Amino acid sequence: xxxxxxxxxxxxxxxxxxxxxVASDTAAVVVRRRGGSAANMxxxxxxxxxxxRFIGQVGxxxxxxxxxxxxxxxxxxxxxxxxxxxxxxxxxxxVAGERTMLSDRATCTDLADPDPAWLDGLxxxxxxxxxxxxxxxxxxAATLAAWAGQRGITVSIDASSASLLQRVGPEQAxxxxxxxxxxxxxxxxxxAATLGPGLHPDHLDGALVVVKQGAEPAIVLQPGRPPVxxxxxxxxxxxxxxxxxxxxxxxxxxxxxxGADPIxxxxxxxxxxxxxxxxxxxxxxxxxxxxx
Length: 292
Fold this sequence. Notes:
Elements: E1 2-6, E2 9-16, E3 28-35, H1 37-47, E4 52-58, H2 62-73, E5 77-82, E6 88-93, E7 99-104, E8 124-128, H3 137-151, E9 154-158, H4 162-168, H5 170-179, E10 184-188, H6 189-195, E11 208-213, E12 216-221, E13 228-230, H7 244-257, H8 262-291
């Protein structure tokens, strides 16, 4: 089973139909859905035919109940604590499809006192870097990573956000990632550029590094081998790429656990990511029809 520790929030996705008219009305379609990097990855893993567990905290409120019901309905196993107020992320999608995210993680970062049973049955523990910033969640995630290493469970880390890495500091972020002794590290092209040359197996104790580049080929870096590019899949009618990177991680980690080599695993990751983009884009299209 694949596990992920971190955020599950309400995404309020705003599809802008025109440029923002400051201090006046702007036409838009608004869609609410379950979000959060860890939750997105778990859902994508289940939809891809894998078994997955979400580890995290949601509010003791109607939104928290809705979020957990949605994720359980996708087939996920839940190790969830409920207290406080559920988080919300407003995702602004402009007319060109560019995303801007306004984040209120609320109770997500309050997850404390980890339970070793959360790791039972896992072959991989995935940790978005979001989960390593904000206490006590950061300490909880690091503790789970240490326990996973002791049990022989693969640890995967996603760099998550270039702006977050810049705030933390690239060198400090890399040192933090390295201290958790991951087997797999993922980053998109902006995160990779932020982290610089240190994002390489030679500087990460031989970890497999995969750089996602959206619609462009992913770059696979393995210890002692030259980089390999793996083409992405073409998707028509893209309106929303939210969650594509998390789905890529799900596909990659499931394939590696099934015994695929890194190149084959990256090919599967592209397929799972493409499916996620199709689903998200269809939601935006359906919303546009309903709103019209």
